[in-house]
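Q: What changes when oxa(dethia)-CoA is included in the input?
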Amino acid sequence: MNSSILSVGAYVPPQIMTNQELPASLDTSDEWIRTRTGIEQRHVAGPEETTASVSIKASERALKAMALDPRELDWIMLCTDTPEMWSPATACFVQDALGAQYASAIDLTGGCAGFLQTLQIADKMAQAGETVLVIGTEVLTKSLDWTDRSTAVLFGDGSGAVVVGPSNEGIRIVHAKSQSDGSQADILGKPYGGTRNPITPELVADGHLHTIHMEGQKVFKRAVQDMGSMALQVMQDAQINAQDIDWVIPHQANQRIIDAVAHHAGIVKERVFSHVAKYANTGSASIVIALADMIRNGLVKPGQNLLTVAFGSGFSWGSQLWKVNQVPPAIFE
Ligand code: UT7
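A: The predicted holo structure follows.
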């Protein structure tokens, strides 16, 4: 049995922060951010919003879009690098709020490639007959060092969810591949607060160490190289030419990275979706928010081949080829 994406839901917090509205202490400019990243604004969680609350909103939309009874869900798999709390899994809060009483709920962490890695696992489970809610979520703006201009300007908040099930009706996952290189773990991540660097009074007093740390140039280089190669590998494995790809849906990190990956994979710019200007980098949520936005704008059509590709901390990266048999219902207001 094949597995397919049967419905899509996405949610971004209503509050928008433009480049001009970033704190003056960052010593940055709209011009620098636009030219180096393409980002113009980001959605930012309000004080009352958390990873679970945005995930619940996206999940409710995915279920509502296809009128699925939450009791039909076998699994809730939530991918995030910014969980509700250390334990229990954020997915458990979602399970409770949805009333998915027969589902098993678990979190996975894979950086910005995490949604594709999680979907790759869910695909196998759906092929075996299970119905899986896969959620990619980040509330990154609560994990940033707002004195570090090299990271603070890049990220935004949001959540996306898909229902994956044993069916040919929807977007069929034709081929999926992902890989990791843990030797690069120190380049990008949130290294403090775990068992290697536990929470101490000094850590808390510093006020910066619990936030995201990134060596941007190193990430940039590997992101272009590994996303480009992985996209080519997936096309080769699936025996499909670049000319037959209708849309590339790349992780929305930086317009310069998106352009370079498309060039590397031999795909013309017009077939590469980007809305990084509006949403910035939403980590694990980025691919699924992009898919929801594309469906909302009528860009996804039956018969199309979609190639998606992502890269993030770990390093981990992945790519998938999707075939649109039917456009899945989507809610993204
Ligand atoms: O999703 C995966 C996670 N992350 C990514 O994909 C991000 C990958 N990396 C990038 O997108 C880019 O490396 C950045 C956007 C982070 C940085 O762009 P860059 O072109 O690589 O700039 P850079 O790091 O080489 O910095 C150039 C200059 C430096 O100043 P000096 O040393 O030349 O005086 C930085 O201090 O730009 C400065 N700079 C800034 N200036 C104004 C860095 N950030 C900013 C800023 N505003 N926000």
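Observations recorded in class: The pocket of oxa(dethia)-CoA is lined by residues 28, 32-33, 36-37, 112, 149-150, 153, 188, 216-217, 219-220, 223, 251, 253-254, 257, 281, 311-312 (CB under 6 Å).
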